[in-house]
Design a protein that fits this description.
single chain; alpha/beta; Rossmann fold; Dihydrodipicolinate Reductase, domain 2; 6-stranded parallel beta sheet; 4-stranded mixed beta sheet; 11 helices; 22% strand; elongated
Length: 269
Amino acid sequence: MVKNPGITITGVSGRMGQMLLKEVLESDKASLVGAVERAGHPWIGSDLGEVMGGSTNGIIVTDDPLKAFAISQAIIDFTAPNATIEFAALAAQARAVHVIGTTGMSDEQIAALEPASRHAVIVRAGNMSLGVNILTKLTEKVSAALDEDFDIEIIESHHRHKVDAPSGTALMLGNAAAAGRGVKLADVRGGARDGLVAARKQGNIGFASIRGGDIIGEHDVLFAAAGEQIVLRHVATDRKIFARGALKAALWGQTQKPGQYDMMDVLGM
């Protein structure tokens, strides 16, 4: 494993991008070597330290990801699906670990990552936090223990600027609940409810999304039967948990063989 592997962050001007930058800069186990933004962004060509309101640090924000990836051992990417697919191919060329926290990816877009994973390590997760991944495992176990008399609903809340719904974490929980019952989520996923709709179909897994204010992330898995309910819950109060998990994944990936992994692998779960 490379000592203090060099890491490039994509989408550095975003809320999550800046959180990732701070996490890497404060780490004694990795070093920041690159910062990428989309073409035309006002930060392009500027010193990253200066645009973040501090002193110069010699890292110039670029819109050329291949150039940045070529000097990196890991890429941390919380951007958009199409950008992530492009970055995966470039990270594979550089043989760099690609940590993907991008949400809202379709099944087709996820499948498009396969060619890159033959040449480099990809760690992709709907949520990088330790707590959420434990919640995911608990969801699968509880789902396996209960029969279809218990309806499953996943309720997620996020800030008003989040554009995808359900969240990547909610879908991760939905897949865990489906796995517990030995079915595929695509076959039992309930649609959105609005107006006069049919009664709930037994065995379906439903989703509800709330958007408002500055909610970082709240996820509830509700198992509801006649006369009783079980609720599993995770509340994020600081985005640092996602950045911390992403850095852990980038470091873990340094000793792995090419392939696709998730946070369950990183955490040894």
